[in-house]
Bifunctional TH2 protein, mitochondrial
Amino acid sequence: MAIPPKSVGAVIPTEDGLASRFWIKFRRESVLSLYSPFVICLASGSLEIDTFRHCIAQDVHFLKAFAQAYELAEDCADDDDAKLAISKLRKGVLEALKLHNSFVQEWGLGFVKECPINSATLKYTEFVLATASGKVEGLKAPGKLDTPFEKTKIAAYTLGAMTPCMRLYAFLGKELEALLDPNEHDHPHKKWIRNYSSEGFQATTLQTEDLLDKLSVSLTGEELNIIEKLYHQAMKLEIEFFYAQTLTQPTVIPLTKEHDPARDCLMIFSDFDLTCTVVDSSAILAEIAIVTAPKSDQNQPEGQITRMSSSELRNTWGELSQQYTEEYEQCIESMLPSKKEEFNYETLHTALEKLSDFEKRANSRVIESGVLKGLNFEDIKRAGERLILQDGCTNFLQKIVKDENLNANVHLLSYCWCGDLIRAAFSSGGLDVVNIHANELSFQESVSTGEIIMEVQSPIDKIEAFDKIIQGCSDDKRNLTVYIGDSVGDLLCLLKADIGIVIGSSSSLRTVGDQYGVSFVPLFPGLVKKQKEYGADGSCCIWKGQSGILYTASGWDDIHALFLGH
């Protein structure tokens, strides 16, 4: 990426601006770039100098392409203000080109001669220049553009192809700056990080985004779709650039990079409700019951399981939910120590036995209430197939289970009352090989009796199931266990696994964890710290369970990057 030109004025785009919407929409690409081995090593200060020098040397090619693209865009713009803004951006790039060698010397790299362009840089620069030349799908050939307005589209398209690069580097600069230790004066890449986190670069990025927004105002929906495609393509090319950097040093990620199925065993465990799903499965089952229940004035056929009316069900479910919420909060409060304790797994295990007793009582009330009577198996299956999963969850699991070289074991440990609902949700995504450990509804001729066959209904049940699965693994292989969860019920498994990843923002999980000495570390900073500790032979990179450290992820894309890279 180019060295930043000087600030041309900080213009903050509106939240609903085109550039802002695209940046949010393509968050996944920014996450994959952030978690690239190159950026992790750069942030840690351990990136080998030759790798850094080669990357910086590519700046010349970016700068030349950007300057040329801005020149073409300026020629296409028909608005004086737009021409002036583009001209200022271009002059900034030309100035940066002149200053390139002084920047390189300032970064302590010595003089870096212009080196041949690498394939990833070439792909991006050719893409930008092709766009700026009007070689865009759905657009007339440049020589056949009849009106100034048609030419203006090219300026908008060009900014659509260049803006993502600016925003991505502004994002990376800020993310990496936040990890700099003010007491660490010898971080070799501090100047690079500060360069992209600087007010000047942030301001230039905002002005580029603002210009894209202005150039796009009069475009049609179809033309805006073209810009979206260009923006997305640019983000994907940036990912390719970061992963194309040659690293000879050992890196902590991706976890699967050196996986040998003959020697290693990868065990991935996950909760289901609100870890994989957007909505809790108990609410889905209750809604099926309410929607399919007879109205109060309807006669029920003889020989069938007698059900409550839909209004009775709604009231009963409301009462059960309210009672659960109130007693859950009381239970959590009662199990907290009087003062914050040092982390001790066994102490926490004992404390969570209270929660286990509570969960069992709550489930007994559900069975006794009869709210789950009369559910049709096909209705449950259809609901499972339509169940909305968290963004990135299905894609990640599909890649894991379909990669024969990984030969990974994936297990779902869930409090869900109906394992068939989970199986339907995953089978629709081709994930039948996922092992489901959950409770089951009892059926008579495809209609639920209201009874629940209890298998996993408490934190203690979950950890016992977890331990049993681990004990069944071969001692001949090196096991790496990862648990992904979102609630207090997952806490023991999260801590017992080699790597525990918390997804979501459960306040009760944080409260209990904090009081029992558990540390919650954001995943990216945690990986940067691990990379710093990584010895040249890789001997220092050890993931170990019961350390009291859990990693927090903002979504499944973070987890995807951790395991698989891009």
Observations:
- Confidence is low (pLDDT under 50) at residues 1-13.
- The radius of gyration is 28 Å.
- The first strand starts at residue 264 and ends at 270.
